[in-house]
Amino acid sequence: MKSLEELKAIREKMQGSVAFRSDDSNQTRVVVGMATCGIASGARPVLTALSDAVQNKAVKNVAVTQTGCIGLCQYEPIVEVYEPGKEKVTYVKMTPEKALEVVDRHLIGGNVVTEYTIGALAK
Amino acid sequence: MPEISLNILDVTMNSVKAGASLVHISVKADTSADTLTVCIEDNGCGMTEEQVARVTDPFYTTRTTRKVGLGVPFFKMAALQSGGSFDIRSEPGKGTVVTAVFGLSNIDRMPLGDMAGTIHMIVTQNEETDFVYSHHIDDRGFELDTREMREILGGVSFKEPEVSEYIKEYLRENIKESENGTVL
């Protein structure tokens, strides 16, 4: 069984080098709907894919969080991206694969992945 | 819901929303009784008798934005369709206990699913709440207590990549060892 000893070692290694947290004002928020509707349609692997990718690719100033029902249950899993000073982008019917594309093209590349947005679906 | 772990994720979010500071989640398989018992116990705001009586009704919700509330009804349905039982007790100001018993070997029981991923998500995404997760098959098992982890970490966040990765591995490894070759 894995023990807590390892956690102590991590803590000691990190002592004094706790990552610098940017202030919230210039932070991009990526929000995944995690109510019953979202969870039932596959939001958990989407949230996992997003937080893993943001972590592994060391994307700066991005916080991945969860929220309740966004009110568009038929479009779940939904991912909303709030960038400071920009209009909110709503991605719908997400999958882990689409989420990775959003990380690469939108969060890193700066271009909205238009084909996955709610606007593209409504057309 | 295709996995019991998703029901657990969903119902645990109710505990977080109820303002709980501590939530106990336990998964226990008892092979001689042929049951898989899932219990979620919180010290949140609780519910009135009337709310408890109606909470398993899919057309009851406290929300005003829509008319259905499916989280608890789904959980109950999953338990009952595997030949199990479901119980919810609550007291305003004290908290709520939800217990779902599944028929362990029943063909209509959903698989438990990715509990490591579920608990990892719950603890890293809700750092203002403490969780105790216990996972047992008969007498074999382990417990994760976020209060212990927080004490070791001082102020370091569960979201720090190394810590987050450690928690994921801790859960994965210990669940695997508890299950000892079986898959719940």
Descriptive account of the structure:
The complex is a heterodimer of chains A (123) and B (184). Chain A is an alpha+beta fold and 123 residues long. Chain A has one domain: 3-Layer(aba) Sandwich (Glutaredoxin), CATH 3.40.30.10. Chain A is 38% helix and 15% strand. Chain A contains 5 helices and 4 strands; from the N terminus they run αβααβββαα. In chain A, a hairpin with a 6-residue loop joins strand 3 and strand 4 (89-91). Chain A is globular and about 55 Å long. In chain B, 39% of the residues are buried. With 184 residues, chain B is of the alpha+beta class. The chains are: A alpha+beta (123), B alpha+beta (184). The A-B interface holds A 1-2, 4, 6-8, 10-11, 13-14, 18-19, 34-37, 39-40, 44-45, 47-48, 51, 55, 65-66, 68-69, 71, 73 and B 1, 6, 9-10, 13, 17, 63, 65-66, 69-71, 74, 114, 117-118, 121, 124-125, 142, 148-149, 152-156, 160-164, 166, 169-170, 173-174, 177.
